[in-house]
């Protein structure tokens, strides 16, 4: 069991482009880090596309599995990344996977160590300064009495 502090992220696959032909999904994946607990959302015009979770071999050969492992195709298909490892998704419409509608991501286990935020560092400094200020006033008060 690992304790996850950060909240889960929801990724709309392809960003504003969504799930369609003509999007370079490798480029979209490059700058993102996927963690267990995050969610993928495939957005597309219902009926125009679909989403299948596939194996690495099926991904390479663009083979559409006979079962739909993602449930219904609504055009707003949400997938929770439940386990770490490499995940492959393709569009099952004929020719679309070969046309580029294929997504490969690596899901990492757990959250990265949270870096101390600038705000909390500032707060620590401010607190230290106030303690110092308080001591000066306390000393001044003693002298004045
Ligand atoms: Cu498609």
UniProtKB/TrEMBL annotation:
Signal peptide: none
Lineage: superkingdom: Eukaryota
Keyword Transmembrane part of the UniProt annotation: yes
TM regions (residue ranges): 122-144
Keywords noted in UniProt: Membrane, Transmembrane, Transmembrane helix
Pfam families (alphabetical): Cu_bind_like
Domain Phytocyanin per the UniProt entry, residue ranges: 9-109
Protein name per Swiss-Prot or TrEMBL: Phytocyanin domain-containing protein
